[in-house]
Write a structure and sequence with these properties.
The protein is an alpha+beta fold. The protein has two domains: 204 residues, no CATH class; 171 residues, Jelly Rolls. The protein is 45% helix and 27% strand. Strands 1, 2, 3, 4, 5, 6, 7, 8, 9, 10 and 11 form an eleven-stranded mixed sheet that branches. A hairpin with a 1-residue loop joins strand 6 and strand 7. Helix 1 runs antiparallel to helix 2, helix 2 packs across helix 9 and helix 7 packs antiparallel against helix 9. The radius of gyration is 31 Å and the shape is elongated.
Length: 386
């Protein structure tokens, strides 16, 4: 039994460096159990590849998750202003599942306007594991469209007397009556001044204030207000949580590819008036051929490891824009993308070897059948996704 197992293991590896000899041995004694070993190796290589990919991606986490702060005046939090804060169901920016309201306030003949939210909980914005960014949409109006002379953003810590302050808010504002979005870095060493010893591990409220040199009718609106941090799915446990689904998908893909490659090669061979004989033997040989998948999957980890880490936003369009700038121009990304296609060519070549060994057809004819089969398989994956 041990000798037989060693022979099977030897034939699995021999497919990679001497497929003719390996296929001759498999034809004499086809063994479906060996294909199971190949499947296990494919699963292992895919898990390694997915782990390497996950180590490069840091996923966006928001607080609150669903734009809750600008959807209502009071839940656990509370909005206050020097005017009368209200919920605007007409003029907002987030939309869709993120909400369909903004928070608005207006004051007549004033030189400043402010909006603040308190009782948001205790938010950690420290270096270790805290939130690192503050995102928001803001819009202001002035009855003569005069731009504000100054603007501040405060992060309260425990009380409104203890806070961090950012005093360049006007640098990010659009013109009167226009929405603009801004992402500010928060945390130590990010340019925030402090008063009365606030603590970055205990942010409890936020205040926006705009000032003018002369009085006017003023309005301020806020939407999409949340803190952001980026976390590795490996550290947070998300990778472990999706691992069962990854394993299931790999098994399904293996079976689907096995059936498709063997079936397409058999059908194309028939079109060339070639009968490949016992289909079960041919299926086993193609199953062995997926050792190529193990090799090219592991090879693809090398260029993947050379790619820079990415902070992945929740918005799909923003993620694609980030890929355009950060990954797609790089040679390592191109290699990672196209190595699997080269691997499929390798499987097609092993299919040609199998046909040559089984039926002793000419190499040119076997190569032609394999090339046609590869073209069909490629089109199926390109247009139908499998």
């Amino acid at each position: 039994m041990e000798t037989a197992t060693k022979l099977v293991d030897r034939e699995i590896l021999e497919v990679l460096y001497s497929p003719v000899n390996a296929f001759k041995k498999i034809i004499e004694k086809p063994d479906f159990k060996a294909v199971i070993i190949v499947l296990v190796l494919v699963i292992s290589s895919m898990v390694i590849s997915q782990y390497a990919l996950s180590s490069k991606l840091f996923l966006e986490n928001r607080l609150p998750e669903n734009d809750d702060w600008t959807e209502s005046l009071t839940t656990q939090h509370g909005w206050f202003s020097n005017g009368v804060p209200s919920v605007d169901a007409v003029d907002y920016q987030m939309g869709n599942t993120d909400g369909n309201h903004s928070i608005s306030s207006s004051v007549p003949t004033e030189t400043s306007i402010w909006l603040k939210i308190i009782d948001v909980g205790s938010i950690n914005c420290s270096d270790e594991a805290g939130y690192t960014e503050l995102f928001f949409w803001i819009k202001w109006t002035h009855d003569t469209e005069l731009s504000p002379s100054s603007g501040t953003l405060k992060l309260f810590s425990g009380s409104e007397d203890s806070y961090f302050e950012y005093d360049n808010l006007v640098d990010f504002l659009a013109s009167s009556g226009e929405w603009t979005n801004t992402t500010l870095k928060v945390g130590p060493d990010q340019g925030w001044s402090s008063k009365n010893s606030p603590d970055w591990q205990n942010i409890t409220g936020i205040e926006f204030k705009l000032d003018w040199s002369s009085s006017a009718n003023l309005t301020m609106k806020l939407d999409g207000l949340f803190f952001i941090k980026y976390s590795s799915p490996i550290i947070t446990g998300e990778f472990s949580a999706i691992l069962p689904s990854i394993l299931l998908q790999v098994v399904l893909d293996f079976v689907m590819n096995w059936i498709l490659w063997a079936g397409i090669l058999i059908l194309v061979a028939k079109l060339f008036n070639e009968d490949l004989g016992r289909w079960n033997v041919f299926f086993v040989i193609i199953g062995y051929s997926f050792m190529a998948t193990v090799v090219f999957t592991l090879i693809s980890v090398v260029p993947l490891s050379a790619l820079p880490s990415l902070n992945v936003p929740l918005d799909a369009n923003a993620f694609n824009a980030l890929l355009d700038v950060s990954w797609r121009p790089l040679l390592a990304y191109q290699l990672w993308l196209y190595i699997p296609i080269i691997g499929q060519v390798w499987i097609a070549a092993l299919g040609a070897v199998a046909m040559r060994v089984m039926k002793e057809i000419t190499w040119s004819k076997a190569a032609t059948i394999a090339a046609v089969a590869f073209a069909i398989r490629f089109l199926l994956s390109l247009f139908l996704g499998f």
